[in-house]
Amino acid sequence: MVEAGLVAIGAGLAIGLSAIAAGIAEKDIGAAAVGAMAEKDEAFGKGLILTVIPETLVIFGLVVAILILGLAK
Amino acid sequence: MFAPERMKRVTVIGPSSVMDRAVRELHRLKAVHITDHSKGEFELDIGSPFERADRLSELLVTVRAISSALGVSGKKELMNGFRAVGMKNLAGLNKAVKRLNSEVSSILADAKEAEEKLKKLSLKKSQLEFVQKLGLGLDAFSDYKSLAYFVGTVKDAQKLRKSLLIATDKFELFSAEGKKKLGFVIALFIDSGKKAEAAEVLAASGFAEMPLADVKGLSGPVSAAIEAANKERSRLERQVEANEKLLARLSVKWHDFLLLSEQLLAAELEKAEAPLRFAVSKSAFVIQGWVPASELDTLEATLSKATGERIFVEAEPPKQGDTVPVRMSNPKPAKPFEFFMRLYSLPKYDEIDPTVFTFITFPLFFGFILGDVGYGLVTFFLLFWLKEKFPAASGLVNVLIPASVSSIIFGFLFGEVFGFEQAFGVEFPQLISRAHEINAMLITAVAIGLLHVNLGFVLGFVNELKHKGLFKAFCAKLSWIILQLGVAVWVFWGAKAGIAVSAAAVALIYIGESMRGMVELPGLLSNVVSYTRLAAVGISSVMLANVINDISKGIAQSGTIGIAASVIILFIGHTINLALGLLGGFLQSLRLHYVEFFTKFFEGGAIPFKPFGSAQSK
What we know:
The complex is a heterodimer.
Chain A: H1 4-39, H2 44-52, H3 55-71
Helix pairs in contact in A: 1-2, 1-3
Chain B: E1 7-15, H1 19-29, E2 33-34, E3 45-46, H2 53-70, H3 90-134, E4 147-154, H4 157-167, E5 171-177, E6 184-191, H5 195-204, E7 208-209, H6 222-253, H7 255-273, E8 279-280, E9 284-292, H8 296-306, E10 312-316, H9 338-344, H10 355-369, H11 373-389, H12 394-414, E11 422-423, E12 426-427, H13 438-492, H14 495-530, H15 533-556, H16 559-597
Antiparallel strand pairs in B: 1-9, 1-10, 2-9, 3-8, 4-6, 4-7, 5-6, 8-9, 11-12
Helix pairs in contact in B: 1-8, 2-3, 2-7, 3-6, 4-5, 10-12, 10-15, 10-16, 11-12, 13-14, 13-15, 15-16
């Protein structure tokens, strides 16, 4: 039996760190995408997609967090 | 339905004498996407615009200038050509516009003059007030022979007097306290022999000169002059106001005329400049372009009738490698979802148009994420209100309306109303509880992901089949499905068989997509897992709703004020949560289509079909 508190910390780290990672990645992409859009309006669709690609990191973090929480039971 | 509208490459050839006629008919039909002729092709030059183009463009510029001066903007449907603006022809319109222009510019010139006068007057007034403060007459500031004077401000008049006394006593200093920061206003009259020294002393005491150019030469009492200036100012202000009223009246009176003329002239100019896009010889012209196959017959009939059968229209199907302009063609309910294609990239002519698939899956995904009867209903009515209020946003709204309906349906499946799963002790019937069966939700989401991604591979197979043949297409796309089956066999059956199937699939992928396929191998897993967002984003929205509900429930137990506060918390909390849910539901669903689904089959990058004469062709 793993300590419930440690499990909670682990789950929190899983999602928090992955969210920070996604944020760092999206910051640069977003800035570049806005720059591209200023030059060319049609770039909006592509810019949106490129910007949300790192979002998957958080989703992975969330899935891992849920799996970790399962350990507490 | 699954492909863009069929096009025909069309070539229109005729003698120069019927070119004008042909251009008018093409502009009216709005059926031909003209491809610009480039010099040198079949050794023909590009045409030159019709003579009237110069006059038209000049007139168009004038109309636009008047519109901007009068602040006229907006849209109005243009019909009936020149009759729409009450004119018989271009000459009539020209006369009317010129008359209006001279009227407007004379008012504008008048207004400008009045404003300049006002500016000068306010300068003069401040100088007069300066003199008034010193208590001097206006005639004190005339030109003297032996006397020099300085007028302006200093920090400290007493100090100045003392330092002047050191140099000479032949001076007179008038001073008065000025506004807070300015210190003192002064007028110093001094023997002209001592002028240079006085200037030095003044400079040392922080003197700032007040120019009296507009007051010099005036005589009489200052107060009378100020009064006169005030009178003049109110007269000028009345004039400015009257001008503004005149312009406003003109702007109302000519509003429709200007809008319609602008459009009319722009359309006429487009026609007049059209030959720049044609190939011409001395006595003939060639127009090349694309026409929807369904409109070809009308085009031929109209052109030959209008020109007395002196025109030749040839049509042929597009060849491989042609850049065919694309107009999407989808059943009416799916039409709004072409919005997503325009946002991303138009499908190529020989490619599957995924609009119909998006029409089915986007609302499903959106509903799965925002599955709540309460939120769905609010969104539904909000969207209809938005559609009424902001017709410009209707592209987005029309996409979201089916999505909100799906939200309501999923709300019933999940048994949720504003996050509540029960009310007054009655549990809502539900198929699955999002808040409590998280694992089941995640598995469902992954299953949806598998279906969606594999649909993408199948569509990719169909696309590739046209260019690369059965084997290559199979290797490039369907082998990905075999790979997934291999993994499944590995997990549920046994390692040996599973590894064998997977390895074979990887080899096929290498044949189909070479190194690129190898790089994308791990991507398959992340693509499928990415669909867990369908569950995850939804669950986080449910959790947030629960938190809001719990807080307000807690507060509501503490008396009347508590109930009022809890209602406010409910309202604000659910508004924020709905906004987040809408944004999340929209972006995440869209992303799953663009990133996970489209990358399996979609290339895009086609140019849109812009028929000559339509609003988009400008």
